[in-house]
UniProtKB/TrEMBL annotation, chain A:
Domain ABC transporter per the UniProt entry, residue ranges: 2-215
Similarity comment: Belongs to the ABC transporter superfamily.
Keywords, in A-Z order: ATP-binding, Nucleotide-binding, Transport
UniProt lineage: Bacteria, Pseudomonadati, Pseudomonadota, Alphaproteobacteria, Rhodobacterales
GO molecular function: ATP binding; ATP hydrolysis activity
Keyword tRNA processing applies: no
Transport keyword on record: yes
Protein name according to UniProt: ABC transporter related protein
UniProtKB/TrEMBL annotation, chain B:
ABC transmembrane type-1 domain residues: 65-245
UniProt source species: Rhodobacter ferrooxidans
Subcellular location, record wording: Cell membrane
Transmembrane domains' residue ranges: 73-91, 103-123, 227-246
A Gene Ontology cellular-component term: plasma membrane
Stored SUPFAM superfamilies: MetI-like
Record carries keyword Transmembrane: yes
Transport as UniProt keyword: yes
Descriptive protein name: Binding-protein-dependent transport systems inner membrane component
Coiled coil location: none
One annotated GO biological process: transmembrane transport
Length: 215, 259
């Protein structure tokens, strides 16, 4: 069970977030939508514990995985070590299997700089899932990708979520991405940012054509 | 001397360039010695072979070389570890930086000679004073360099390490130190060069062994040949350290950049 209750978050005298509360069941996927600069990333930093300076209470499981806007790899360690160093419980065979799942098995000994940007992103994805996370946090993971690569990444993410079934929080400004991955959408609006209204369930996503034009 | 330079300099192997460049320096020396035409002012390189052999045979050269090397190793290890810890702390904590920065400026601008003399006066003419003086001279440089490195640490990687719950030690080894590596090798490189020069001054002023002491002795005897024998022996040792230890270590640390 994941509970997020943020009463107030300020940077100096600027209030950024106010009265944000939601909870997340096991294997539930929610999306947080909002314009850029509204405070989505700030909220994620609170949820993941990167930033602990706020008023409120957040309960998260111990095993977390996160995909950042940039790949954020350790460029001085091999592709394989980028998994095993962060997940000490992961043996080499399991790490290789995780690499194989994202199509990077033959790159295990390479350094991240030798990979293409798309491959680096897939490695970041493998890293997030390798620890069998109970909570997965995606911070605009498909931003700045060309359309084809973004589609590949989205499909791969979808498949991995279906296999591992973590509770997932996706932050994005793309309505389409949110609808495709998430069962529930929260909107951040205003300044200081707060949740727009009661979360609405998303209609059946087997008929994507119905949602065109929603924006 | 029939050394024709290869036509394409860009493709000359580094080792060849290194040898040629040192050979050229030797040539300048020979030329200067011939022009001086006075072995008591500047002996030719080959005139040093005999005194070098004599000092080696008597065991004096290895002994004094060993003493100096021992002091360099101690001073280097202490200055690097204290300077790194201090620089890292000052780079990470701006409050501490505000307090310690004026001290750093004072020590950076304190002449080596003043520190050495004061250490000898306050601590006494002993090994502790000698090494303390060298360490105090070097710490500010290491600290300044490492502080820059610590300020440049990536906040993104720190966030990543936090989300994935990396342990303190793993974070230091796999996240922080690799980012600091260029600053550490820079400090080590300039450190080793500065330290051995200061060690010689320290020995010159207040020790009864080491290369600096021998140079002091032969300076008083006006024996240029022996001064050169001792100085050059140590330069050779430091070049070997540079080529066999420092450069390979740096290449290993930089491997991921070149891959």
């Amino acid at each position: 069970m994941i509970r997020v209750e943020v009463a107030r978050k300020t940077f100096g005298s600027t209030e950024v977030l106010r009265d944000i509360g939601f909870s997340l069941g096991r294997s539930e996927c929610i999306a947080i939508l909002g314009a850029s600069g509204i405070g989505k990333s700030t909220l994620l930093r609170l949820i993941t514990g990167i930033d602990r300076d706020f008023e409120g209470k957040i309960t998260t499981p111990p095993r977390m995985g996160m995909v950042f806007q940039e790949p954020t790899l350790l460029p001085w360690r091999s592709v394989l070590q980028n998994l095993t160093l962060l997940h000490p419980g992961l043996c080499d065979a399991a790490a290789l299997a995780a690499l194989d799942r994202v199509g990077l098995a033959d790159k295990a000994r390479a350094f991240p700089r030798q990979l293409s940007l798309g491959q680096q992103r897939r490695l970041a994805l493998a890293r997030a899932f390798a620890g069998k996370p109970e909570l997965l946090v995606l911070d605009e993971p498909f931003v700045s990708l060309d359309a084809d690569t973004a589609e590949d990444m989205l499909a791969l993410t979808e498949a991995l979520i279906a296999e591992t079934r973590p509770a997932t929080i996706l932050v994005t400004h793309s309505e389409a991405e949110a609808k495709r991955l998430a069962g529930r959408i929260l909107r951040l609006v205003g300044r200081p940012a707060t949740l727009a209204c009661a979360p609405q369930p998303v209609p059946d996503r087997s008929k994507p054509g119905r949602h065109k034009g929603v924006a | 001397m029939g050394c024709s330079l290869p036509p394409n300099k860009a493709q000359t192997p580094a080792a060849v360039v290194r040898a040629l460049s040192l050979g050229l320096l030797l040539l300048v020396w020979v030329g200067a010695a011939i022009l001086t035409a006075d072995a008591s002012v500047l002996p030719a390189p080959w005139a040093l072979a005999e005194p070098f052999g004599r000092e080696m045979a008597s065991g004096a050269l290895p002994f004094h070389l060993g003493m100096t090397l021992w002091r360099v190793v101690w001073a280097f290890a202490l200055a690097m570890s204290i300077g790194m810890a201090l620089g890292l702390a000052m780079g990470r904590y701006p409050g501490l930086d505000r307090w310690l920065d004026p001290w750093l400026v004072v020590f950076l601008n304190l002449p080596a000679l003043v520190l050495i003399v004061l250490c000898y006066l306050w601590i006494g003419l002993n090994e502790t004073a000698a090494i303390t003086a060298v360490v105090l001279n070097k710490i500010p440089n290491v600290t300044t360099l490492l502080r820059e490195g610590a300020r440049a640490l990536s906040p993104d990687l720190a966030a990543m390490a936090r989300v994935y719950r990396m342990g303190r030690l793993a974070r230091l080894r796999h996240v922080v130190l690799p980012q600091l590596a260029p600053f550490i090798t820079g400090a080590a490189r300039s450190g080793i060069a500065v330290i051995w020069k200061i060690v010689l001054v320290v020995e010159f002023l207040g020790r009864s062994n080491g290369i600096g002491f021998q140079i002091h002795l032969y300076f008083q005897l006006y024996n240029v040949g022996m001064v050169l024998v001792y100085a050059l022996s140590f330069i050779v040792v430091m070049l070997v350290v540079e080529w066999l230890l420092l450069q390979p270590a740096e290449a290993r640390v930089r491997r991921w950049r070149l891959a």
